[in-house]
Each structure stands twice: as C-alpha cells, then as structure tokens.
Amino acid sequence: MATAPRPTGEQRFKDPRAAKIAELITPTITAHGLYLEDVELSATGPSTTLKVSVDLLSGTEQVDLDTVAEISQAISARFDEEDVLPELESYDLEVSTPGATRPLTEPRHFERNVGRLLEITQAGHSPILARLQAVQEGSITVIEQKPAPKKGMPVKHGDPMEIGFAAITHARVQVEFSHTQ
C-alpha cells in the first residue's frame, strides 16, 4: 500500500512520550478486548491533549460508547497510579475510535470493513467505488460499483476482482445511510 502501513513494535510510536504511554496502557486496552490504534499528544498553548484511539482487533462490529467510556476511566485510573507525564501540570484525555472514514492502511483495517463500500485508488488509476467482499493474504476482493447511467436507474456492478495491497495507494470507507445486501 502506498499509504504506508503503520510501523509495528518499537517503531510504531515515533514520539517517545507516546511510546511510553502506549506501553503503559496497552495491557488495560487489551484486557477490554480492544486494540490500541494510536496515541497522539498535541499541545495548544498551555494545554495538552492526549488522544487515544482504540478499535476491535477483528470482526465488523463497532466499539460502543459504553466501552469507550470504560476504557477512558480505566486509562485515567492507570494514569493516577503512575505519573505518566510529569512535565505536564494538566492534560485532557480523549479516548475514541478511529472513525468511519479513516484511511485503511493495514490488512486488519480491511478485515474490519468486509461488506462495506470503499473508495479505492490504485497506483496510476482513478479512484473506484467497490464493495469489499473478502480479504486474503496480500490482497482484497471487491465488486466495483459503477454509477447509474441516469438518475433513478439502478447502480451497475462489475465482476469480482482482486486487488493486491501493494497496488493500493489510498482506501477509505464510504459512509452509507442505507444499504441492503
């Protein structure tokens, strides 16, 4: 994928403070059956915001608000036990999910969106709209959705096609307000 997959392990968090926080909170997040997507520290004037993004590791379900609230409380309690950011007098903790339209940069992001409509750009091609059918090692299977020739006419669908992850330069879920499969 031209949108580079996020590094893993020690290289995952470039900011050493974010890496320290990630190391501290990952067991708490994992204990709740979630995956730590990202940790970001951003300073605006005298205040600092710590943004923690969590997601389910697999499946197509969404993280509910009650779970996000539980995680937020658990992280806050963990921070109370250990002075995580001693250089800061105060900070705001924001815990959320990555959001429906985040770029899909890892195979598991695609796995979490099977059945959804994606906008996919491949190297040297125009973006296409396609319904994600399956994720295999190294590729995805999609059915392209072509616009209706005239208003009120049904959308046209192509044949299933396989796209290698290496060919994908950008992919994002398209929010649909109604969908029947």
TrEMBL record:
Residues 104-177 form the Ribosome maturation factor RimP C-terminal domain. One of its GO terms (cellular component) is cytosol. Signal peptide: none annotated. Keywords: Cytoplasm, Ribosome biogenesis. The keyword NADP does not apply. Transmembrane segments: none annotated. Residues 24-100 form the Ribosome maturation factor RimP N-terminal domain. GO terms for biological process: ribosomal small subunit assembly; translation. It is found in: Cytoplasm. Required for maturation of 30S ribosomal subunits. PANTHER family: RIBOSOME MATURATION FACTOR RIMP. Belongs to the RimP family. This is Ribosome maturation factor RimP. The gene is rimP.
